[in-house]
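2024-03-11 09:14:02 DEBUG pipeline.ingest accepted 1 chain
2024-03-11 09:14:02 DEBUG pipeline.ingest length=250
2024-03-11 09:14:03 DEBUG pipeline.predict start
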Amino acid sequence: MKKLLLVVTLLCCIQSVSSQVLISLVFGDMLNSPKVEFGLEGGANFSTISNLEGAKNRTDFNLGFYFDFMLKNPAWAINTGVIVKSSMGANGLPVYSLNNAELDNAFAGGHIDRKINYFNVPIVMKYKFDNHIYVKAGTQLGLLSKAFDEFKNNYEGEDLVYKNKIRDQIHVIDAGLTIGAGYRLMGGNGMNIGVNYYYGLVTVMKGDSNLNQYNRSFYITAGIPIGKGKAEKKAAEKKTLDNAAESTGK
């Protein structure tokens, strides 16, 4: 319970990716135990929006932290955490009117890159095989942070860019299904290298004309446990002391 309260406190305090990294390094030892693994996770994701005219994949980076809560059967764990920096959206969209004659003229013939930022929370069941390969499946919830359409065009030899904020047109909550697989290095004690696929089930945009548009994203990630080695060492020392105490008692 104390660890859960600490996690909630961390979530409320996070203001940026840099603060997240600092918090992880400071509290990593406290958050790890034989039954809980905590670490940083990040990588690249390739996103698009289904059924959106002209939509092409966009590439972004993601960064967050994760928890593995070990179950009674050591092969199973509940995997969760927060992807603090996580962008979705699509590139190559056709331009629309900005209700400004000068801007409409400047970006005619250009394109739009749509970027939508979420705080994403995966909640999945994870199964670990003896060969250090793991698979996982579950759900992912997203809370909208910001969103904008970036208009781009080359106008009279100059590269023009204009950002149009569209947060009020996006649903605040996103949710869907996620599946993944990966491999644990160093005999199952080192870095996690994995892939995940997210299949959104909540329409991205508000309005009846956008009912079939959903987030889709493919992730390539690397997870680094923070403080796991020290936690295991402390647990081993405690077990040795307990065994010694029992022997003395006898």
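2024-03-11 09:14:41 DEBUG pipeline.report The longest strand covers residues 133-155.
2024-03-11 09:14:41 DEBUG pipeline.predict end
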